[in-house]
Amino acid sequence: MHALRRFSPAILLAIFLSPVWSGCSSPSGSTNGGAKSSTGSSGGAVGSSGGAVGSSGTSSTPSSGLGGRPSSGASSGTGASGASGSETESGSPLDSSTAQDASGLTQSEGGGDDTGIAVTAFAVDTPNVVRRANVVLSKANTAPQDFMALGNGALGMAVWAANGFTAQLNRVDTFPDRKSVGQVVIPGLAALTGAADFSGHVDLYDGTLIESGGGMSATIFVRADAPEVVIDVTGADPNSTQTAQIKLWSGRSPSGAAAGGVATLAESWNDSDMAGSGKTFGVLSAVTAAGKSVTASVVDPLTVQVAFQPNADGSFRVIIAAPSWSGGDAMMTANGVLGSDAMTPLATLEQAHLAWWHAYWGQVGLVEMTSSDGSADYLEALRTAYLFLSAAESGAGSYPGSQAGVADLFNYLQDSQPWFPAGYWFWNLRMQVAANMTSGAFATNAPVFSLYQSNVANIAAWTQSKMNGRSGICVPETMRFNGNGYYNDGEGNASCDQAASPSYNALTLTSGTEVALWVWQQYLLTQDLAFLSTNYPIMSQAATFLLAYATQGSDGLLHTVANAHETQWDVQDPTTDIVAMQALFPVVVSAAGILATDASLVSQLQAALSKIPPLPRTDQASHTQLLTASSDSGGQDVFAISYQPAAQKHNGENLDLEAVWPYGLIGDAGDSTALAQRTYAHRMFVHSADWSFDALQAARLGLASEVATDLVALTQQYQSFVNGLGLLSGGSNDGTSEPYIEQAGVAAAAINEALVQDYDGLLRIAPAWPPSWDAAGTVYIQGKSKVDVQIQGGKVVLAIVEAGSTTSLMTRNPWPGQSAVVVDGATNAAVVAATTASTFNVPIVSGHWYAIVPASAQSAIPTVRVTATPATAKKTLGSVAIGL
């Protein structure tokens, strides 16, 4: 929450091709297309519909066996499904829409499945399912706030059509103020963007913006494998004079230079104030072009340009380099980055870029969704857009690309930055970490964990200095990138700083616990022991600090006086501290056991577990009376946010539901579930900000209808940019605010949680899936595994577990009261015989896949083939839209 509220190609490919484990199958599908679509019965295709969202189809064909090889041209689990001429395992042709939609695709184009698990019952046309969410421009996006977002995780760009072509470039490492690299202007592209027949779209699968009009075309991308922007143009007037400028603005002091066909702007500064790192940061931009008579010049102290004529065939190319910069020889550095890229054939230049994006989409789990009112289709597009934007802002960067929930890499407002540009709020990263994790985009979380892990020593020193000499780490909620808690480089609103109390985060003690618990969750999903070992100090030191801060009262319990995050300040036993101890202490004990370390700390934590106070209660009407657990039976109480529920509230956080999500202490079937559901129903703040976790908490509580209501309401209220990004307070977008990514992150995480959960070791299939939404998709779970699910007509058709480890999965029966069976797809053997039990153990073997189906379907397991066509028009949900 906001205080005040608020490379080389081989290396890049390795990030996603050989991450924690191999394997990812793309999602499967249901139907869709346009606002409405009709669903066919088993054995037929899901009907296609108009192009507002992009049409899709799911073939669900009974198969007589599970052991057959994948259909020719279709990948196993992931990739192109049902290429022309393919057959199902039973020998019947796939539906014609599948063949048509996937025509021409090869297995490699679909991303491939590197697990070696040949999933013959579930396959996805990955390129086109992704492209169903393409951001389509039916007219030029001349307003800056209608920008299109592109990036490679370190370098980002906001692109719009003012002055022909305008783009602002931003990097993740221009601290402490996150100064922009500059804006690029190419006036000659007005002939394209101003044409009556203009059209454009962001091809999410290729990570590329494509525009055409007036006989011209432009292919625009931020290279995934280099700090470069490419603008490749065809169809220009060969006799025209073109220019491409890089501009800065008042308040900046760059040095400009020009030599031959290259112009540079460079500026550096030192981060040297009281909060500073002592490091030098800066920006370097360079521009060159491929064409005739290319000349570079310094226009004025803030502007450089290249001028040229297109080639005889009307083609030209502009290349912008923007590497990390801390000073030196700007021209030499620029030439080292640019090389011969201006003259390299486009197919060669974009090869590694496309490979990176295709590998990324082949790794993550997609979810295809549809509903008769179009809301599910829209939210599917928002989820896919989030996965694109998340990779574009953090996929390969040295720091997270978002601070305070802002999508900083896509800033279009020069150097204007809200909040505290040198710092990071974990409250506004948590939903992004969760969405990335359960989508299988583990590498996208690497900058977040690195931020905290690399600063453990600095955080410990800050804690020692500002928290009365206590041991361990109090991770500042608004932590500066170099690990201290100063806010805007002062102490007035600092985090983890007793001298600054009372204030928003002076005594917010639980940010370190949150980071630690996400470390643990990522370990559980990936089983990456090296990752756990590297990040274990965050866990152990966060627990050490909580032990050091809490004091044992006369009742024998551990008590704290601290902030209930930003909402209540300096209060008795905040709920956040209680759930932090309840969740973190057992996890650190488990992690220490795995790593065979910290025996003394383990003993302390085990002893402390029985001394943690119960969660406080209050009345559901006023949220001011302090009640106890004895009031639960009356059905009128709810959880409170502290033991002083009447204390002043400074923010609008539903901290009374933190035990549900993200702490995972209360779920949809436990002793406290009814009380938590009552707390949700009577929560103090409904849809209160773009980061509202209402939908996530509804999903964890099994409230399926509320998941749909929350997702639709939050999206309609806050998603104010046509690229899928949002505004903190929602409403109309007047172009004066930076975009926020947190609302899209909440939507993506909540969709995953509604479809599949196993945060506590119990696998739940569709635990909170809205009954009027159809879906087919993939969610990652613990043990290097993932689950593919198809839902039609409010019913789970099948679930497939792709096993990444050999273990036993406690699973909840997806058909309560009905008989379910689990079949090993590799052997055709039933590993769980028909049972009506509410839960059952599924023994799984790494490399095998397992179909969970109604017992009545055991002899003819449905075969799911998910197809789609790219979007051809903007998508709408009430007054908001993706596309223009």
Features:
884 residues; alpha+beta; nine-stranded antiparallel sheet; 19 helices; 24% helix; globular
Question: Could you give a quick summary of the protein structure above?
Answer:
The chain is an alpha+beta fold. The strands form eleven sheets. Strands 3-8-9-10-11-18-15-14-13 form a nine-stranded antiparallel β-sheet. Strands 4-5-6-7-12-17-16 form a seven-stranded antiparallel β-sheet. A seven-stranded antiparallel β-sheet has the order 19-33-34-35-40-37-38. The longest helix has 21 residues, at 529-549.
Would you mind describing this structure in some detail?
This protein is an alpha+beta fold. It has 19 helices and 43 strands. The protein has a nine-stranded antiparallel sheet. α9 packs across α19, α10 crosses α13 (529-549) and α17 (694-700) runs antiparallel to α18. The protein is globular. The two termini are 31 Å apart.
Please, what is the average pLDDT?
Answer: 88
Helical stretch tally: 19
Largest sheet: 9 strands, antiparallel
**Rg:** 27 Å
Low-confidence regions: 1-54, 60-115
Oligomeric state of the chains in view:
single chain
User: Which strands sit side by side, in order, in the main sheet?
Assistant: 3-8-9-10-11-18-15-14-13
